[in-house]
Amino acid sequence: MLRRLALLYSGLVLYGLSSAMMVRAGLGLDPWNALHEGLSLRLHLSFGTVIIGVGALLMLLWIPLRQRPGIGTISNVLLIGLAADAALMFLPQPVSLAARAGMLVAAVILNGIASGMYIGAGLGPGPRDGLMTGLAGRTGWSIRRARTGIEILVLGFGWLLGGTIGMGTILYALAIGMIIDMTLPLFQAMAFGASAKTSVRA
Questions:
Q1: Full residue range of the structural domain in which residue 79 is found
Q2: What is the pLDDT of residue 141?
Q3: What angle do CA 49, 5, 29 make, to 5 degrees?
Q4: SS3 call for 92
């Protein structure tokens, strides 16, 4: 359990850090963070505060979808936003395009690793993940269809609200699934031991 908690909380902090890095790079955000940034601009709230608020609202949508939160869910709602705001206080704004591109690539890689860590801990999905799986379960859609539909809708709202859309958005869409696929089995094995290795290989 200690290993699982360590993976969960390390992953959530790193996820918040990676989100802040994408914001500082200024070359485009993933769909949810584009929405968070747009709402932050409109509501004059910090980026992390919006992440927490949106996560809490999404959990209300879990009720009709019959999703049950775990300790990982509650931690996800609170910790990612806090970590993102803390990182934004200290991260410098890169000046050159090369530095911004480097920060963006590092952020996407770190985001994928962090996702593998907190998902691999198996202590409850994040509010956005639970919305996806719950919608798929209630409608009969595939996970891919549910995720794609949600993220297209979220990206549209983020763009309308002024969230940053650009090459980072495309890079994230192309790379994030592959990075999580590569890292998730490793972190599941770390969390659950030899039995997880066997199940992952199967």
A1: 2-201
A2: 77
A3: 40
A4: coil
Please state, in angstroms and rounded to a whole number, the distance separating the CA atoms of residues 135 and 87: 32
Count of structural domains, the chain? 1
DSSP states along 131-176: HHHHHHHHH---HHHHHHHHHHHHHHHHHHHT---SHHHHHHHHHH
Q: Hey, what amino acid is at 27? A: L
CA distance 116 to 125: 12
Q: How many beta carbons lie within 10 A of that of residue 23, not counting itself?
A: 24
Asked if residues 48 and 82 have their Cβ atoms less than 8 Å apart, the reply is yes
For the entire predicted model, the pTM comes to 0.89
| Better-predicted residue by pLDDT, 145 or 17 | 17
Alpha helix (H) ranges present in the chain? 2-25, 31-43, 47-65, 71-90, 97-120, 127-139, 143-161, 167-192, 194-201
